[in-house]
Amino acid sequence: MRLLIVEDEKRLALSLAAGLTAEGYAVDVVHDGTEGLHRASEGTYDLVVLDIMLPGMNGYRVCAALRAAGHDVPILMLTAKDGEYDEAEGLDTGADDYLTKPFSYVVLVARVKALLRRRGRTGSANPVHTVGPYAVDTGARRVTHTRDGGIEVPLTAKEFAVLEQLVLRRGEVVSKSEILEHVWDFAYEGDPNIVEVYVSALRRKLGAELIRTVRGAGYRLEAPR
């Protein structure tokens, strides 16, 4: 899933981005409210981590503008401010959750995962998807073998993220560019064939018949529900 961090403290923003990338998310970072609103309005993000005290446009205004335009992307607000009034103001503008600095990184990751589970990109409250002999849990971000005692299949964060895109769009052809957009960050300028490397790794671990290559178009998950 793709996240946007809007935070003017550059060291904090880059630290959060590095940590969330290690968790398997594609993460973009901007440092002012105006650019944050522009990026978030594109509609390609699954969650926005939004600081309140920002140059250009503060987080309250960014959040309110997104909601007024009909964007329902989950928003986790960050602020150095404290107190019930600040929290209420943030939530009143349409934020989904609120975290006061300084905060534990572990807590932030837990809040991010909770918001993504709550949203449920497939429209289902159940984050577990049956894919042939496997259970793909997008909440816990793990794959287990349902016919072999629930043994977990070890996947890297990026491998899981690629698989997740195919699972969430089961039956559809997903192009390389679409996978790159959601699994790698906005600044990625490497070889787009990196997607083939991860698809090959998934085939080795889960079975060659699971993911079909549609020549000139992309990949499609073949496993029945």
Mean of residue pLDDT values: 83
Question: With helices defined by DSSP (H or I, 4 residues minimum), what is the helix count?
Answer: 8
> How large, in whole angstroms, is the Cα Rg?
18 Å
Shape verdict = elongated
Number of strands: 11
Main pleated sheet:
5 strands, parallel
Order of helices and strands: EHEHEHEHEHEEEEHHHEE
Helix amount:
25-40%
Structural class: alpha/beta
Low-pLDDT segments, ≥5 res: 121-125
Strand content: 15-25%
Going across the biggest sheet, name each strand in turn: 2-1-3-4-5
Q: Give the distance, in angstroms, between the N- and C-terminal Cα atoms.
A: 22 Å
Q: Keywords, please?
A:
11 strands, 8 helices, 225 residues, elongated, five-stranded parallel β-sheet, alpha/beta, four-stranded antiparallel β-sheet, single chain
Provide an overview of this structure:
It is a single chain. This protein has helices at residues 10-22, 33-40, 59-68, 84-92, 105-119, 157-168, 176-183, 194-206; strands at residues 2-6, 26-30, 47-51, 75-79, 97-100, 128-131, 134-137, 142-145, 151-153, 211-214, 218-221. Helix 6 packs across helix 8 (194-206). Strand 7 (134-137) and strand 8 (142-145) form a beta hairpin. With 225 residues, it is α/β, with parallel strands linked by helices. Mean pLDDT is 83; it is low at 121-125.
